[in-house]
Amino acid sequence: MINLETLFANLGPVLGILGASLAAILSGIGSAKAVGMVGEAAAGLVIEEPEKFGKSLLFQLLPGSQGLYGFVIGLLATLKISSSTSVLSGAAILFACLPIAFVGLHSAIAQAKVSVAGITLLAKNEEHQFKGIVYAVMVEIYALLGFVISILLLNNAVIG
Fold first, then answer.
1. 49: phi then psi, degrees, rounded to nearest 5
2. Spatial separation of the C-alpha atoms in residues 60 and 139, rounded to whole Å
3. Which one of 3, 9, 101, 106 has the minimum C-beta count within 10 Å?
4. What confidence score (pLDDT) does residue 160 get?
5. Positions in the chain whose pLDDT score sits under 70
6. Which pLDDT score is estimated for 90?
């Protein structure tokens, strides 16, 4: 049985690890689901027009970035955690990881939906592919904002 003193002595590192984990897990889930959705649409296109593989691959790659952002934040958060991380610092790390965790999860899925529409655009009118890319990149902006705020918050997280 864990006593309260032991629990509180380790609560800081546990909170920090929870934040790092959420950043990587949630944004990773979003990207995995998103890349899969776009891959299904792209595979349907490539069956009919195999020469469009490269162009369709670009649409599939776009929603994968959120998983990378979450991985980077998770890694940076992990580097801030030690056995002596205070509860305050652990909580600060946890909260710093939440923007990319949640924005990464939801923006990846939203970007997948736009990218699937871009695949449809590519299938019907190849010369308008760039327009589909622009639409998908617009969603990326919000993932970048979540990533940047997580970096800023991590840089200001209390240490000790």
1. -135, 80
2. 14
3. 3
4. 54
5. 1-2, 159-160
6. 95
Residue 98 tokens, joined = 């939440």
Token pair 């380790």 in the structure block, residue = 10
What is the C-alpha separation between 114 and 134, in angstroms, rounded? Answer: 10
Query: 3-state SS of the chain?
Result: CCCHHHHHHHHHHHHHHHHHHHHHHHHHHHHHHHHHHHHHHHHHHHHHCHHHHHHHHHHHHHHHHHHHHHHHHHHHHHHCCCCCCCHHHHHHHHHHHHHHHHHHHHHHHHHHHHHHHHHHHHHHCHHHHHHHHHHHHHHHHHHHHHHHHHHHHHHCCCCC
- pLDDT computed for residue 88 by the predictor: 93
- Please tell me the pTM assigned to this model: 0.90
Instruction: Quickly tell me which residue has 């952002």 as its tokens.
Output: 69
pLDDT, position 79? 96
> 47 by DSSP, 3-state: which?
helix
Q: What is the pLDDT of residue 111?
A: 97
